[in-house]
TrEMBL record, chains A, B:
InterPro entries per the UniProt record, alphabetical: PhoU, PhoU-like_sf, PhoU_dom
Entry GO CC: cytoplasm
Its job: Plays a role in the regulation of phosphate uptake.
Major subcellular location class: cytoplasm
Pfam families: PhoU
Residue ranges of every copy of the PhoU domain listed in the record: 21-109, 125-210
Family the entry assigns: Belongs to the PhoU family.
Coiled-coil residue windows: none
Compartment list: Cytoplasm
Protein name per the record: Phosphate-specific transport system accessory protein PhoU
Length: 237, 237
């Protein structure tokens, strides 16, 4: 590794990680936005592009991991710099997973195409993904500015995503019951909605990591990252 | 470098992390086994215990994270010791997520209870969870023995889990189509099966981390952690 042993160069190494995370964030946002667009428009070409693009995130995560470990071993950073580097590893892992979830939506486009999607459903999915994308964007901004207040707020807003997801879940069950020919497509849409809800959870994870990077302590574990659909149908069937 | 004060005590700190990971592994295995048992037996009391038990994994992950960072900052470990500690953070994160997935199965027990589950389905779910648990157990053994060969084999065997999951997916769709009254319960069972499939993915992640800890390099990214159900219904509906 050709870095020279100056303090400036250590900062450069940290800045490199920050830049790579920001790039990963941009790719992850695009994958999520495009996969949902492909889904609601039945655009299989776009779905193929999304699926291919995900490999970029896998590569980036590995590279960030390797770099982070090299930087720790070589520089032996203390306290806040160490948190910065450990945080990069965690955020890269969340963004890689966001890409996986987007790719999985892309892969379901063909199966869902066979169904005429009711407008209400499409709007619900779009709304869900807009919220998840806003979360992702804001949490990446919080990462850039190291703002732990924003991170805190984002975590709480995740509940809105869960509520919309639960209502979509009920709606999809209704469509299946109304017409069994919808079952296969609706099942894929259920998993797409679940994927978007999970993307919101990963944004929350990133918010927690940003808080940890900024403050050195962890947010209390009060907010469970858990959808509430398990209670749907628990009492009546 | 302040590593000189008692090498033994640094070893103790590493051993502490190893022990805590092993404990987490034991709890995660129990949560998965019990949640599936609660599901197939409709045992809501057991489901409640599983849900409560998951909090232990959340606490353990936070503690391991905090400890790991303190150890790195204080000891400034090089190469293999650093990999060991970074690996602990990653494995704790996977095990925490395994617990979440088990807890989510537990939460669906009540909703699924309303349905008389066909024997074939129950056997399929049990078989899937046995495979996932075997993966988990073997990967934790590989972690204890730092065997990268075992880790490598486990990663490849994950494909069997995916195949069984896909066949369960098809079967559940069939039950829904045969009788729309099964739709709600079958949907919850679909998510349970998906959760078990994801548990297999986390075992694979751990295998990759063990390989990294043992060798210092990463397994090539050839094996996608991806279920193949997206193609179900893609051509016929």
């Amino acid at each position: 590794m050709p870095q020279s042993h100056t303090v400036a160069s250590f900062d450069e190494e940290l800045q490199y990680l920050v830049r790579r995370i920001a790039e990963m964030g941009g790719v992850a946002e695009r994958i999520v936005a495009d996969s949902v667009a492909a889904l609601v428009n039945g655009d299989t070409d776009m779905a193929q592009r999304v699926i291919a693009e995900d490999a970029e995130l896998d590569r980036a995560e590995r590279e960030i991991d390797e770099r982070a470990v090299v930087v720790i071993a070589k520089r032996q950073p203390m306290a806040s710099d160490l948190r910065e580097i450990i945080g990069s590893i965690r955020i890269a892992s969340d963004l890689e997973r966001v890409g996986d979830l987007g790719k999985n939506i892309g892969k379901r486009v063909i199966a869902v195409q066979a169904m005429t999607q009711p407008k209400k459903l499409v709007r619900g999915l779009e709304h869900l993904s807009e919220l998840a994308l806003t979360q992702l964007k804001e949490v990446l901004d919080a990462y850039s500015s190291r703002s732990h207040e924003v991170a805190d707020a984002i975590r709480e807003r995740d509940e809105e995503i869960d509520a919309i997801y639960t209502s979509l879940f009920r709606e999809l069950l209704t469509y299946m019951m109304e017409d069994p020919r919808n079952i296969t497509a609706c099942t894929h849409l259920l998993f797409c909605a679940k994927n978007i809800e999970r993307i919101g959870d990963h944004a929350t994870n990133i918010a927690e990591t940003v808080y940890y990077m900024a403050t050195g302590s962890q947010l209390p574990a009060e907010r469970p990252k858990e959808d509430e659909t398990h209670s749907v149908g628990a009492t009546s069937l």
